[in-house]
Amino acid sequence: MKKQICLFIAIFLLAVVNFSGAAMAESGFYQLGDKMEDFTATTYDGKTFSLYEALKEKEMVLINLWATWCNPCRMEFPYMEEAWQQYSDKVEIIALSCEPSDTDTVLQDFASEMGLTFNIAQDTANVSSRFAVDGIPTSIVVDRFGTICLILTGSQTEAGNFTRLFDAFLGENYTQSRLFEGLPGKIPDAAAASAEELNAALKGEGNITFANSDDMYVWPMTIAQVDGRDAVVSSNAGESETTAAVCMQVTAAAGDVLAVDFKLSSESAFDFMKIVVDGETVKSFSGERDWMRYAYAFEDAGEYDVEIRYAKNAQKDLGEDSLWIDAVSLLSGDAAQIALAENPAYPHSEKNAAFPVNAGAREVIVEGAENFLQYYFGDVKLFVIPDDAIQMRFELKEGVDPESAVVVSDYNGQVISLAEIMTENGYNMQTGVDTAETTGYPYSTVYFYPNHEKTGVVYSVLYFADEENLEIFLNANLPGYEWKYAGEENANAAILNEKGEALYTLRFADAEGNPVPGVMAQVCNDDICMVYAADEKGVCEVYLAPFPYEIHILKAPEGYDSETENVVLAPANGGEVTIVLERK
Questions:
Q1: What proportions of the chain, in percent to the nearest 5, are helix, strand and coil?
Q2: How far apart are CA 294 and CA 175, in angstroms?
Q3: Are 66 and 95 in contact (CB under 8 A)?
Q4: Could you give the CA distance from residue 187 to residue 184 in angstroms, rounded to a whole number?
Q5: Which runs of E-coded beta strand occur in 253-317?
Q6: Distance (Å, whole) CA 326 – CA 261
Q7: What is the pLDDT of residues 545-579, one digit of tens each?
Q8: Other CB atoms within 10 A of residue 365 CB
Q9: Average pLDDT for 502-518
Q10: Cα separation, 246 vs 218, whole angstroms
Q11: 76, 78, 219, 365: most buried, per Cβ within 10 A?
Q12: Calpha distance 315→304 (Å, rounded)
């Protein structure tokens, strides 16, 4: 599932320090591999937790930084509790709230509501201030040696994520600290083929030696008979977020070609066969592929570390969910050129692009809203499409692999590899058009990712059935902004500063109009919540991407009501907002 995060900025960390009366530690931020200093916390039910006392009895401690107002924190707690119930004899958890107003009573009510039984306390020791994280929830693993082994920000909404995390640090074989930059994968339970078996089964030509990966989280290849062939097969079928691989060392001359004969049965656009050379993915395939050969050319002579992987995600297990490799060969001369000529041919253009080709499509410009649109939709273009369906065309620049590139339509949730929609003259697809009347949505979006791992630029088309639906979208998301068709004049477009940001001025006052300093306000869009503090004049000024932010009172000074449920909506293109606080 998608990770969710509540972001909080440095001023919030400082506010935690100021309200608690403690100072930030002088030793700076913790890093992976650091030994963590001992700290104590008093749980909401009066128990004293000590990091190193806990490590005398348990094999690891999970520190979770959170707050009661953070919905992604709330989302992961049931899964954390479920996993901890299975591992409580070996694992200790301490959930430290970074929010000063999360008193023992608040925490107790929260734990009772959620059915949580692990340690929960306020972060009176300011542990959160020692970690350079910009969001919550954040989970920190301290192993039996007192080493910080993982700093993971984001909501984990599967119990298996936590059990997999715990397993990485438990057991008699854990004799030295293991550091992880992300969630550990599932440890393989399949028996690996020996190097001799791999070399015999893959029986390729040329100077190649085969072996299993020495990474304990990489699943091995095993020996298989398939379609009358002696082959190796990936062992991670049905195992979400795992990778199986066979490794090889290749001694190549300039111009030599690595030819891989394989068969693939997988979920298209999600589970991939990958050829990786010296750590760089040079080719990907997904979906259903009967026996075929792919050839990769080495430009320079040298020693190369090559892996052939089957990488699975957490979506579905379609087909046989497996990769079979029959042979890997190192070819030269005419044999190399013949193999390269048999590779799939793909159309390429000068640049990556996505655009509609409907005859009546008209591009729309909303001047001044570029920052907002790019934040939510990437490199986006807007169109009015006066048809029942949109006809999309995609272009790929040279060097981009269409087998790896994917298209996502939010009209029907379709995710498809660009290679599946390839025609003689490019890449084309059709999808529907939402309207406020038919589906409740006044717009639709097609996203184009040149890399299925969704790194780099995303290209998108945001489109509308007609002008009425366009204006519904603008009124809801960009009130006050004017639009025009490309090539037409618009004298009423909103103006932003030179950074493309809008200035939001928040003023906090009492019923008589007197300023109220020191108010903590939560400013939220659809994805994140940020916390800001008013100055001595009761004012907070901040530049943000244009958006109709929701403003909530998070904490008010003594004597004022901070339990207000009122939500104030900021103007989408910036401006001044006055929020009145009631005295108790």
A1: 15, 40, 45
A2: 42
A3: yes
A4: 9
A5: 257-265, 272-277, 280-286, 288-297, 302-311
A6: 6
A7: 878 788 888 888 888 876 555 678 887 767 788 88
A8: 17
A9: 86
A10: 9
A11: 219
A12: 33
C-alpha 512/C-alpha 523 separation (Å) is 24
- With residue 430 as reference, give the H or E element that holds it: strand 426-432
State the pLDDT at residue 562. 61
Rounded Cα–Cα distance for residues 67 and 73 (Å):
7
Q: Specify the pairing of strand 257-265 against strand 322-331.
A: antiparallel
With tokens 């519904």, the residue in question is 472
pLDDT at 237: 93
Residue that the structure tokens 């030179």 belong to? 498
What secondary structure letter does DSSP report for 266? -
- Calculate ∠ Cα 509-530-2, nearest 5°: 150
Tokens encoding 254: 């300039």
Q: pLDDT tens, 457-500?
A: 789 999 999 999 999 999 988 888 889 998 765 433 444 566 66
Both tokens assigned to 155: 């909501």
User: Per-residue pLDDT tens for 276-307?
Assistant: 999 899 999 999 999 999 999 999 999 999 99
Residue type, 481: Y
Indicate the length of the chain as a whole number. 584
Contacts of 29 (CB under 8 A, 6+ apart): 130, 131, 132
The alpha-carbon radius of gyration of the chain (Å, integer) is 28
CB 299 within 8 A of CB 251: no
Distance CA 460, CA 373 (A): 10
User: Hey, which residues does 444 pair with through a beta bridge?
Assistant: 463
Q: How far apart are CA 575 and CA 552, in angstroms?
A: 17
Cβ–Cβ < 8 Å for 144, 164: no
Which residues make beta-bridge pairs with 309?
245, 274
Return the bridge partners of 364, or none: 382, 485
DSSP 152-172: EES----HHHHHHHHHTT-ST
Q: What is the pLDDT of residue 262?
A: 97
For residue 10, what pLDDT is reported?
27
The per-residue pLDDT of the chain, averaged, comes to: 87
When comparing pLDDT for 490 and 184, which is higher?
184
Least confident window among 2-16, 218-232, 402-416: 2-16
State how far the Cα of 246 lies from the Cα of 306, in Å rounded to an integer.
9
